[in-house]
Structures are given as structure tokens and as C-alpha cells.
Design a protein that fits this description.
- The protein is an alpha+beta fold.
- It contains 4 helices and 4 strands; from the N terminus they run αββααβαβ.
Length: 187
């Protein structure tokens, strides 16, 4: 038979086991809540990336449609082309990435550099009346290539979590730009 002292010791040990069990289940509950928050942030981020990808695809599709319409018109719609002399690296330090800045050149630079590299006199001997040979004398040399341009912009509102934590702007602008050859007048 157990003495009262032994009963109290056994009861105390049993109560301590219950308290430890409750502490463990409370810790598991806290860990689960933290894990759920992390999972929710990851899922929200993936959904936001999907929205951005969809909006960019829509902008490119609209720009392609617009350029296709211009390419099939009877008369050529003159597109305002900008001449790029070089690129300045952006914040990521990688050349030719999205954050680079185009350093523009003048049309006169274009008309002196391209024909000289193409050797227009020799080219004229092989292919008379080609657009490259007459480029140096043309006031708008980009028009010799019969290029048409389509562009479109889509705006995406970032999720409040990303607006507050990552991207401090009211919207993200996604630009689509497509250049095509005017095909209606091809001979």
C-alpha cells in the first residue's frame, strides 16, 4: 500500500508530465502558426508573379496585334525609332538586362556608321539600288527598312503585402513593344 507521501510524489510527477505535454502542444501550435504565415506569404508571392507574367503576356500580345495591323496596311505608317549608341549598366551590374539605360544616338551617327561598315560602294556593285547604299544620303534612314512598331502597357496593382514590404509603388507598369516589317508593299 502506498503511503500518502508516495501518492503526492506520484501525483506531482503525473501533473508535471501533463504540464510538459501541454507546453509541447502549445509550442507545436505556435510553430504551426508561424509556418502557415510563411506558406501564405510564399503562395501570395507566387500568385503575384503569375499576375505579372499574365499582364506582360497581354501587353506583348496587344503590341504584336497592333504591329501586325500596321504591317498589313496599304500605306506605311512611319514609326518613330530611337537610335541606340550603347548601353549603360544598371544597378545589377549586368550588361543588356532590364535595368540598363539606353544611350541614344542621333540619326546622323546612324547614317555615317552603318554605311561605312557595310562598304556601300562595293555593295552597290553586287546589288544595285539597295537600301544600305542609299542610307547615307537619306534624311530618315530607319524608314528605308520599312519597320512598323506596336506597343502596349498594362498596369498591375501590387498586393498590399508587397506594396508595404517590397515594392513601394501604387502600380507596376509592364510595357510591350514589338517591331515588324511592313509586309504589304514587298515586291
Amino acid at each position: 500500500m502506498k503511503t500518502p507521501e508516495r501518492r503526492d510524489a506520484a501525483s506531482t510527477m503525473k501533473n508535471q508530465g501533463i504540464c510538459k505535454s501541454r507546453q509541447r502542444s502549445g509550442q507545436a501550435m505556435a510553430e504551426m502558426v508561424v509556418a502557415m504565415v510563411v506558406i501564405m506569404v510564399i503562395v501570395t508571392g507566387l500568385l503575384h508573379i503569375a499576375r505579372l507574367a499574365m499582364a506582360h503576356t497581354e501587353a506583348m500580345h496587344e503590341a504584336r496585334r497592333q504591329a501586325g495591323e500596321y504591317a498589313m496596311q496599304e500605306s506605311l505608317t512611319i514609326s518613330d525609332a530611337s537610335f541606340i549608341r550603347d548601353w549603360e549598366e544598371g544597378a545589377d551590374g549586368t550588361r543588356y538586362s532590364r535595368d540598363d539605360i539606353a544611350l541614344e544616338a542621333a540619326a546622323s551617327d546612324f547614317t555615317t556608321i552603318i554605311p561605312n561598315v557595310a562598304q556601300p560602294d562595293q555593295l552597290e556593285g553586287f546589288l544595285p539600288e539597295n537600301p544600305v547604299s542609299s542610307m547615307a544620303a537619306h534624311p530618315s534612314p530607319q524608314n528605308l527598312f520599312n519597320m512598323v512598331r506596336g506597343d502596349a502597357v498594362r498596369y498591375v496593382d501590387p498586393a498590399p503585402v508587397f506594396r508595404n514590404l517590397i515594392y513601394a509603388a501604387d502600380s507596376i507598369d509592364l510595357v510591350g513593344e514589338v517591331w515588324m516589317i511592313h509586309t504589304r508593299g514587298i515586291r
